[in-house]
Amino acid sequence: APNAKNVKQMLLDWCRAKTEPYEGVDIQNFSSSWKDGIAFCALVHRFFPEAFEYSILNPNKPRDNFQLAFSTAKMAGCPPLLDAEDLVRMQEPDWKCVYTYIQEFYRCLVEKGLVKTKKRP
């Protein structure tokens, strides 16, 4: 069975792969890489491209970005486990919170058949 460290790395690699085509996203961790909300938006947009216009997002408006990403993620059935206000107040997001949210988003995508799990994600 994969250990927690492997799962965390696998999820980080998955996030990188899914957001790779997006400008302004460089995912290195589950904390500071997510602080302006753009990485969340890119990840969600990858699965719901019709939901919003990625190119007009502003990294200087993290609250708007978080709210947009989390409300759009509900289309996957993903509950709003994170609060935009809390994230804006922090210097950088708590990695455990981001990691938990991404795990849940991934699980919801798998449930909806939007992510294939046969091979590595």
UniProtKB/TrEMBL annotation:
Pfam families with a match to the protein in the record: CH
Highest taxon listed in the record's lineage: Eukaryota
InterPro entries named in the record: CH_dom (IPR001715), CH_dom_sf (IPR036872), F-actin_Monoox_Mical (IPR050540)
Keywords, ordered alphabetically: Coiled coil, Phosphoprotein
Calponin-homology (CH) domain boundaries: 5-110
Family: Belongs to the smoothelin family.
Name by which UniProt lists this protein: Smoothelin a
Organism: Oryzias melastigma
